[in-house]
Write a structure and sequence with these properties.
Blueprint: E1 7-13, H1 15-31, E2 38-43, H2 47-59, E3 65-76, E4 79-88, E5 98-106, H3 110-121, E6 126-134, E7 147-151, E8 157-158, E9 174-179
Parallel strand pairs: 2-3, 2-5, 5-6, 6-7
Antiparallel strand pairs: 1-9, 3-4, 8-9
Helix pairs in contact: 1-2
The protein binds inosinic acid and magnesium ion (MG).
């Protein structure tokens, strides 16, 4: 499925697999019997995952409130600068609540460690982390996710909300951008 000239996407996790896994993640979240549940989706990369996950949560019988926080850790291209900034904060009070932070990828862990510290410092009862993907062995800070969709190979992935320079977010699957007829992953654009 060519998207730009000489570019193809190699699919790593297809729509059906993601949908099935979202149902399992919703069931696992429900099994923890959350009280006064608040889902906080970390923008931008999590928007598609969060949209599907909260519908799976509804089907699982949960009634979360849903909020968004926009954090930025990547300043240029695909290289992390290590610094996390709040670009847009949530409006809701988290005191005493069970919060589930939803993000696309747990990589260095800096973004989610920052988000979890912030939510806990505001008095949340719990702040569990639910990510679609985890890249093992890439952690720069000590943090674990309670819920992980899939372990992801150490490649720069796109689709299902994840981007390179704001492109490819619309893809309904997760994949890797490659040159047509080339086995090697691109050093991104
Ligand atoms: P970290 O865990 O703080 O390093 O940051 C993870 C964030 O970096 C994710 O939420 C994504 O926004 C971004 N990110 C990391 N790896 C990838 C990738 O392979 N594709 C797209 N975005 C990525
Ligand atoms: Mg992100």
């Amino acid at each position: 499925m060519p998207l730009q000239e000489n570019m193809v996407i190699r699919v790593l996790f297809d729509e059906a697999r993601i949908a099935k896994r979202n149902g399992e993640l919703a069931a696992a979240i429900k099994a923890r019997n959350p009280e006064n549940l608040l889902v906080v989706a970390v923008l931008k990369g999590s928007f598609m995952f969060a949209a599907d996950l909260i519908r799976a949560m509804h089907r699982a019988g949960l009634s979360p409130q849903v909020e968004f926080i926009h954090l930025s850790s990547y300043k240029s291209g695909t290289v992390s600068t290590g610094k996390v900034e709040i670009l847009r904060d949530i409006d809701s009070t988290v005191r005493g609540r069970d919060v589930v932070l939803v993000d696309d990828i747990l990589e260095s862990g800096r973004t989610l460690a920052f988000a979890k510290d912030l939510i806990m410092a505001r008095g949340a009862r719990t702040a569990d982390i639910c990510v679609l993907l985890e890249k093992p062995g890439k952690r720069a800070v000590k943090i674990d996710a309670e819920h992980v969709g899939f372990l992801c190979p150490d490649l720069f992935v796109v689709g299902y909300g994840m981007d390179v320079a704001h492109a490819y977010r619309q893809l309904p699957y997760v994949g890797v951008v490659e040159h047509r007829g080339d086995d090697k992953q691109l050093e991104m654009i």
